[in-house]
Write the structure tokens for this entry.
Amino acid sequence: MTDDAMTVAATADDATTDDAFARRTEAVRARYHSTLGGVPGGVQDRLRLARDFDRLPTEEALAALRHIVLTDNPLGARVQQLVHYGQLLSLGREHPARIHARGALHAGATAADLIGVAETALITSGVPAYALGTEIVIDLLATTAL
């Protein structure tokens, strides 16, 4: 069993205390912050749902898996985020594509990298994916110091 899995299993019983829940949810938030530079609103919503229905172990397991896949990967954080961005462009998933574009920048990517991914999406997924990618880059250039 991995350290992450043991942590999830060992702490499953203390979910009832407010302090323990706060500590554990902060650990989940910290993992997202480290990979994306922030905590997406959807994650915050899921953590509230986990609190309300005593399902924090699911969120902890998901965060642990994401951490393993994103940090213990030969691609490295920058390329991982760029791959996420491209896949989400191809799927037409605007909001998560924006999150991962910012995550790629947080991991050291440049605007030129994001444009390159959008251009690749043009070939693999067509004009809608390319248009979405360039729209995201344009918005980031207007709102972020790149």
